[in-house]
Amino acid sequence: MRWRRNGRLESTFSEGGGLSAAEDDSPRAMPERGAWDESGTWKSTADWMSAHARKIRCIFSDVDGVMTDGEIIYDSSGNETKSFSVRDGLAIKYWLNLGRPFVIVTARTSSMVERRSKELGVTKFLQGFESKFAAVEQTLSELGLELDQCAYIGDDLPDVPVMRRVGLATTPADGSVDAKQASHGVLTTAGGRGAVRELVEVLLRLQGDWSAETWESWSQGGDTHSKSSGLGA
């Protein structure tokens, strides 16, 4: 998922802002995951995304290294500190406002992450799950969705079993080698620096559902599907 300087994905958007001519649902061979081109840079999967992005209706996200920069800081009293991206928060609320599930899943337990989840009004907050795939599979069953309708963003080994099975797997720019090899595409943004925002915006631009006008309508009291409190990120 690489951006041109004009802020548009390569070979994905039509002039109207929606899907390009590659938007049909005809079967395509899935590109090799983790493939590198001859110059040593990550292969773009924009063409594959433009054909399949319309199927994605749910996003699952890891926390440490994805929604945060991966650092865990303890103060002198042993209290844990994390920082979150406001841009990620805005994108998550945008996705939720369209009535689409956003689920946070993490192997750790953290009151700070639980608080952030409540602020954003995410569909489900799953913490303390060593087997993330089992949690994802159960949640999708509850939501009435299939794995190929799910996007997953993770950054390291615990995420790989899920990433190998979902419809769209991606990792931040600073994700581990294993996560990159399990991904369909690597984001240009690092964890905790807007990686989730990039994923959500790419998907919704491809689906023709991202616009400043829509957000303005919501901010003025227009109908949303979100259960979160307000639009603040």
Provide a concise account of the structure shown:
With 233 residues, the chain is α/β, with parallel strands linked by helices.
* Backbone structural class: alpha/beta
Count the strands?
8
The percent range for strand residues is 5-15%
Helix/strand order:
HEEEHEHEHEHEHEHH
Global Rg: 17 Å
- Biggest β-sheet strands, sense, barrel: 6 strands, parallel
Report, as a whole number of angstroms, the end-to-end distance.
24 Å
For this entry, what is the oligomeric state of its chains? single chain
What does this structure look like?
By secondary structure, the protein is an alpha/beta fold. 30% of the residues lie in helices and 12% in strands. It has helices spanning 46-52, 86-97, 111-120, 132-143, 160-163, 177-182, 195-206, 212-219; strands at 58-61, 73-74, 80-81, 102-106, 124-127, 150-153, 168-171, 185-186. The protein has a 6-stranded parallel beta sheet, with helices on both faces. It has a two-stranded antiparallel ribbon with strand order 2-3. It is globular and about 45 Å long. The model is unreliable at 1-31 and 34-43 (pLDDT under 50).
